[in-house]
Amino acid sequence: MTNILCIGAGYVGGSTMPIVASHCPQHRFVIVDINEARIAAWQSDNLPIYEPGLDEIVRKTRGKNLFFSTEVDKHIAEADIIFVSVNTPTKTFGQGAGKAADLQYWEKTARQILENSTSSKIVVEKSTLPVRTAEAMERILNSNGNGLHFDVLSNPEFLAEGTAVRDMENPDRVLIGGRNTESGQKAVEALVEIYANWVPRERIITANLWSSELSKLVANAFLAQRISSINAISALCEKTEADVSEVAHAIGLDNRIGKYFLRASVGFGGSCFKKDILNLVYLCEQYGLPEVAAYWEQVVTMNEFQEMRFASNMVASMFNTVAGKRIALFGAAFKANTNDTRESPALEVCRALLEERAEIVITDPHAIENARYDLGELAKRVAFEPDPYAAANGAHAIAILTEWTQFTQLDYEKVHAAMVKPAFIFDGRNLLDHRKLYEIGFNVYPIGRPALTHLL
Ligand code: UDX
Ligand code: UDX
Fold it and tell me: Which among 36, 193, 357, 455 could bridge 323 via Cys, Cβ 3.0 to 4.6 Å?
């Protein structure tokens, strides 16, 4: 039996470890976090994150070979392998503010591991980190005078929220980076053995530490770049008579391009894309590559343009003013099937419309609490309404900001009847049947397609 510890019970640690535990009944898993409320939630029937399929896995493993705890020190002492998935937000202060990763939690965790260890261990980076962080961690960890040895591995997480269980059960690949030393390779092999309990060997790939760390940033940068590319084209489509979905379909059938991640939208969100790209940008700047930095930074700039373009298009279409008008935002989560609102384009649109003094009401099947939290002070100026019909009642406009299936199943005749006329729908996800909405009487504004409007 191996004692496996995960430090950080957030989206990453909390959704991956129970799945690993379910495939490795021979090992014992503990997930610790400094946040007591979060650990209490993981121990309850009401898990802190909404992730389809996860409840069942936690229920099956919890109390058997999976345990949640706040006793970080004690469990560090017992562990053979430690996964670290504490958060690494963008720095808000000092050098690199706004771009570089804030590594204070990581470093604190490394020191805590050192202080509480009485045996040698493998430490696995699960958080996304700047390239060469492992080196700094190795130095801290191996700076002990008691003969302990720590091997640091990089094992980036590629799962996407909302499909985390599926992604983890059947990953395209698992990437493990380690040192090319004898003990480094032994550590890599130990981690390969864990994944080999359910992942076919050929999908478990190994690399050097720096390649592994960099691959995570690059994977996210490439994915986000596709979205910014199609969103750039959506702006052009709205000016011409092209339809961005038709363009995406046509180009996606080219195998070299591929059909995924070409859905034009109000913008990409989530805790990773922006943070990781800015991290990459900072890294390039640090290594004296300003052109490379500027190239990638444009992916983020394009995304901000798309979000703002959506909000200003709403204002322009509604006779250049939304002041005092009730606007229902359908969706707060950064994508469907998650309650996560971090970097959500919905909240950016919300902020922009509040600037214009609109009266905002937000509806979302799972993300209302997080939206309220993330909006901070601004939340006082927003109404939250779990029922989409009630949200639309008396509204001048609806903006579809998250692609929840629930929103496709509403009776839009009924929605329309309860709205102020002329009634507007701005579909930031091209989710609904626009022709049908138009026939009901809505003025419909999709992304990257001509508007369907009854206005002259
Ligand atoms: C996020 C990103 O998604 C991921 O890519 C990045 O590498 C790390 O941050 P996530 O799991 O979503 O990962 O973060 P979050 O939900 O904030 O969870 C981190 C957890 O670590 C929190 O519950 C926090 O309380 C805990 N933590 C943080 C500790 O237990 N100890 C610390 O010192 C700091
Ligand atoms: C992403 C990566 O996919 C994952 O591999 C990595 O581990 C973490 O970051 P996640 O942020 O959970 O995962 O969501 P993802 O499905 O990638 O979507 C990110 C954003 O892009 C969402 O706001 C989504 O709505 C948007 N998106 C995605 C589009 O606008 N269009 C698309 O075609 C695809």
Answer: 357
